[in-house]
Specification:
The protein contains 14 helices and 22 strands. By secondary structure, it is an alpha/beta fold. Strand 20, helix 14 and strand 21 form a beta-alpha-beta unit. The radius of gyration is 22 Å and the shape is globular.
Length: 464
């Protein structure tokens, strides 16, 4: 049996792992690389395997760096089932179509900007191809046993990262032996809103574990909320500006809405108008409410309060482009939440162009910013950034509030690992920038005594 690391190895994005055994070949995740031109080149490379030879695909969750190449996989010949949790399947129906729309628009821009003798790069996939891919989805319930192949039994455990996120347990029988492979996907931080805490896993022969924040500890949520309140009060009340929050449409936006509503209930929020400027975030919020049965207890109580309390926070969900453009004429008192979370696409760029030059406004980052992204350049202190072909000065205040991360920090990762009854035979550390993954693997070796290693992208491991 072999395991090949095709992405998220020595880097955060591009999650894709190939499992092979006699008469069996499947993927865990098929994600897009994110973060600049290098990522675009990786996404355009031919698959390192024949998509037609795959038996099935297992998806840990709906974020594009775990699912974004599924339409291309299907367009190049994969015809098997794609297994994901029920909530993930609903989110993919929104996110993959949005990703395809972005691909088509970017291809149009390249076509308009190309020189006469150049060939414009086509989109990675089209909306029609994304729609066709969705027909291959097979939704499954948490903890239910699934048999995608005669030699494979799987369960999806709640990973506590975003709605529908899962830890994948796969028992694979080959050569008369059964091995238990566990893929953590992205693990959530315990005690965060909306989703439940990650489910403990008792045993694994082979473990593939994420390490996005394996080199640090998040601030306690109370301290994080204090920082958020201070940023809102300083910007809106004292400096009379706007607060712009880049946020992933799925996960982070819903967390922010929950926290802003909770701050409103506790009378800690200054008078603000909250705009959610993302049609996808609006759809994802509706999907979240529809799956209330898998949300944590405080969130279900918050939903009940919002339904019955007439003094709700002033939330507005922006739909059309004209309404979105009008927000850039709002001079003060607005909290604008928009995608993308790393600022490399979507409506957030318009709001950054309008508010970055304004000293009275603030940009609040609440999540990881990958190398090469516009968000990372702003966080790293750039004095000006290029948006829509123009150099935009950065005069707004920049706040980084790390305690809202949907990823487990080092302590939470180690806490989850300690729930195993015995060390896995092999542990591979993925989903982290190279230095972070190396440090976390060393920490696992030193604190747990496990044989943890960081695989290279493209490495193939023969499982004992």
């Amino acid at each position: 049996m072999k395991l090949t690391f095709l992405g998220a190895a020595g880097e955060v994005t591009g999650s894709c792992f190939l499992v092979e055994a006699p008469g069996l070949r499947f993927l865990v995740d098929c994600g897009m690389f994110q973060g600049g031109r290098e990522a675009d080149a990786k996404n355009a490379q031919p698959f390192a395997f024949d998509p037609r030879a795959l038996d099935f695909v297992l998806i840990t969750h709906a974020h594009i760096d775990h699912s974004g190449l599924l339409p291309r996989l299907a367009a190049e010949g994969f015809r098997g089932p794609i297994y994901a949790t029920e909530a993930t399947a609903d989110l993919l129906a929104v996110m993959l179509l949005d990703a395809a729309h972005i691909q088509e628009k970017e291809a149009e821009w390249r076509e308009r900007g190309r020189r006469r003798r150049e060939a414009a790069a086509p989109p990675l996939y089209t909306v029609i191809e994304a729609q066709a891919c969705l027909a291959q989805l097979k939704p499954v319930a948490y903890d239910a046993e699934v048999a995608p192949h005669p030699s494979v039994r799987c369960r999806f455990r709640d990973a506590g990262h975003i709605l529908g996120s899962a830890i994948v347990e796969a028992r694979v029988t080959a050569g008369g032996q059964t091995r238990r492979l566990v893929f953590s996907g992205d693990l959530g931080q315990p005690g965060r809103p909306i989703v439940r805490d990650p489910t403990p896993v008792a045993e694994a022969d082979v473990l593939v574990v994420e390490s996005t924040y394996g080199n640090r500890l998040h601030k306690p949520l109370d301290e994080t909320l204090d920082e958020l309140v201070a940023a809102l009060d300083e910007t809106i009340v004292k400096r009379r500006g706007n607060v712009v929050i880049p946020a992933f449409a799925v996960g982070r936006t819903q967390d922010l809405l929950y926290l802003l509503a909770d701050l409103h209930r506790s009378h800690r929020l200054p008078p603000v108008q909250v705009y959610v400027d993302s049609p996808m975030a609006t759809k994802a919020t509706a999907i979240t409410i529809r799956h209330a049965d898998i949300l944590d207890a405080p969130t279900r109580a918050q939903l009940d309060w919002l339904r019955t309390n007439p003094a709700q926070p002033r939330f507005s969900f922006v739909q059309d482009v004209e309404e979105s453009m009008a927000l850039d004429r709002v001079r003060h008192g607005a909290v604008i939440i928009a995608a993308s979370g790393m600022c490399d696409g979507g409506r957030i760029r318009h709001h950054l162009a309008a508010n970055l030059p304004r000293p009275e406004s603030s940009i609040v980052f609440t999540g990881f910013q990958a190398q090469g992204t516009l968000g990372r350049r702003i966080v790293d202190g750039a004095r000006e950034v290029r948006i829509f072909g123009e150099d935009i000065p950065v005069r707004a205040r920049v706040h980084t509030i790390g305690g809202l991360s949907a990823h487990a920090d080092q302590a939470a990762l180690l806490g989850w690992l300690r729930k195993f009854r015995a060390p896995p035979r092999q542990t591979f550390v993925v989903h982290g920038e190279a230095a972070t993954a190396d440090l976390f693997a060393q920490t696992v070796r030193e604190q747990l005594g496990w044989g943890a290693t960081v695989p290279a992208r493209g490495a193939t491991i023969t499982l004992p």
